[in-house]
């Protein structure tokens, strides 16, 4: 996955500036995170136009907390958050982080409002 690492709280600004982006919170010591990471990698390979920003919740704990505060979404790990023009439009954690769920969320975010 050619992701972008979020290693400082200020790095979140780049993800928030994207028209559509995924923020993926990963724990390198959690087996559930490894399964979710494979799903996020699959999503990224199938949707290269959507940037994926990754944060290591163990090594970059302040960043993970800053994301929760700035986006108003309770911190979990693994967790994926879909941003549309800087606003969270979908998020899920643990077993809900799948390539299919991310793709569906992207389609819904891109659909014109009725």
Q: What are the main properties of this structure?
A:
single chain, 114 residues, alpha/beta, five-stranded mixed sheet, 5 strands, 24% strand, globular
- What portion of the residues fall into strands of 2 or more residues? 15-25%
Report helical residue fraction. 25-40%
Please work out how many helical segments DSSP would assign: 4
Structural class, by secondary structure, is alpha/beta
What would you note in describing this structure?
The protein is α/β, with parallel strands linked by helices. It is 39% helix and 24% strand. The chain has four helices and five strands. It has helices at residues 12-17, 31-46, 61-71, 99-110, and strands at residues 4-5, 20-26, 52-56, 79-84, 87-93. Strands 1-3-2-4-5 form a five-stranded mixed beta sheet, sandwiched between helices. β4 and β5 form a beta hairpin. α2 (31-46) packs across α4. The mean pLDDT is 92.
SSE map:
Blueprint: E1 4-5, H1 12-17, E2 20-26, H2 31-46, E3 52-56, H3 61-71, E4 79-84, E5 87-93, H4 99-110
Parallel strand pairs: 1-3, 2-3
Antiparallel strand pairs: 2-4, 4-5
Helix pairs in contact: 2-4
Please sum up the structure shown:
The chain has 114 residues and is of the alpha/beta class.
